[in-house]
Amino acid sequence: MLSNYQMKKITLSPSGVELFSDGATNILEVALQNNIALSYSCKSGSCGACKATVIDGDVESLDPFKVLSADEVQSGSILTCCSKAKSDCVIEAEFFPELADIEQKTVPAKIESINFPSSDIAIIKLRLPPSTDFKYLSGQYLDMSFGGASRSYSIANRCVHGNGIELHIRKVAGGVMSEKVFLEMSKNTLVRLNGPIGTFFVRKSERPIVFLAGGTGFAPVKAMVEGLIANNSFRHIHIYWGAVEQSGIYSDVPEGWAGAYRNVSYTPVISEEDSEWEGRTGFVHSAVMSDFSSLDSFDVYACGSPLMIGAARNDFIGKGLPAERFFSDAFVPYSN
Predict the structure, then answer these.
(1) Is residue 3 part of a domain?
(2) Residue 139 sits in which domain range?
(3) I need a labelling partner for 25 at 20 to 30 A (CA). Which of 89, 101, 125, 264 fits?
């Protein structure tokens, strides 16, 4: 076993937290193994959520140009999930003490109910064993395993002991797990859950919030808004939910919030032409751009496809949003 003197010291800035790496394990995993939650989501180098900056030292990174720009790389940006310390180094990266008491675990669960609000959307409600303490922050996700397959899904309800877990699952043509969900699962089907995972949760602030959801990206938004309402938050909450067609707006929950709470507004947007649709059309982030002259006073939480998130981030920053106030969770597609 290597001693700390033989290993590479990673110092996180500005916190001063020190970690030790063998040089073969990526920086994100080193941090998580030490119960230090850096920003992350997909762990595959596809979403960009784990971006950090090398201040000093030698760090080996995989070719990042599919996510990071050449200018970002030149300025020292890395993705911690695919970067390794090759010397003692200093990394500018935020970590989250809010997650210190959140333990990732694997637990059994049974399907309490499964409903299909549209032909390609399933809403699953899962019950956990009564003695199971499965804590999470609204916005986090988990991995669900069944029949040899495992997939990641955002948790769609706030954490209340005894209330179980809600998942929103989109049917994917040829998708290993979604075919099982739509064809094999029913009440009392046993699955396994591993989580919670990720750093997508509402940061403490009094600033107004724009929630941007694409398709089933509404799931974590639902959980986060539920949490804010339960905590009697007075923050102004603007929910924008986009889908390709009308059936993709599969819940009337946000409409109910907007009717019940003065600080909540809701705008559904579809991108396909539909003569029966009376609401907004186009790209969902474009609706936000049209509605606000500046985003400099907002926090933004976005969940959906990498393409949607990338476009929103670039345009919102151009509209005055500070880059550090754009929080996202990208739905990175599986190969099957």
Answers:
(1) no
(2) 105-197
(3) 101
Number of residues in the chain: 336
Q: Along the 336 residues of the chain, how does pLDDT read in single tens digits? A: 455 557 899 999 988 889 999 999 999 999 988 888 888 877 888 778 888 999 999 999 876 567 788 888 888 999 999 999 999 999 999 888 888 788 899 999 999 999 999 999 999 999 999 989 999 999 999 999 999 999 999 999 999 988 999 999 999 988 999 999 999 999 999 999 999 999 999 999 999 999 999 999 999 999 999 999 999 999 999 999 999 999 999 999 999 999 999 999 999 999 998 888 999 999 999 999 999 999 999 999 999 999 999 999 999 999 999 998 999 998 876 655
Which residues share a beta bridge with 92?
A: 13, 53
- 81 and 130 part of one domain: no
Query: Cβ neighbours of residue 171 under 8 Å, at least 6 residues apart?
Result: 119, 120, 121, 122, 178, 179, 181, 182
**In a shared domain, residues 138 and 191:** yes
Domain shared by 252 and 297, yes or no? yes
Do 171 and 223 belong together in one domain? Answer: no
pTM across the whole model: 0.85
- Determine the Cα–Cα distance for residues 201 and 179; give it in Å rounded to an integer: 29
In a domain, 2, yes or no: no
Q: Which of 168, 197, 226 is at the close of a domain?
A: 197
C-alpha–C-alpha distance, residues 128 and 143, integer Å: 15
Domain count, the chain: 3
Find residue 322's DSSP bridge partners: none
Domain boundary residue, one of 140, 172, 197: 197
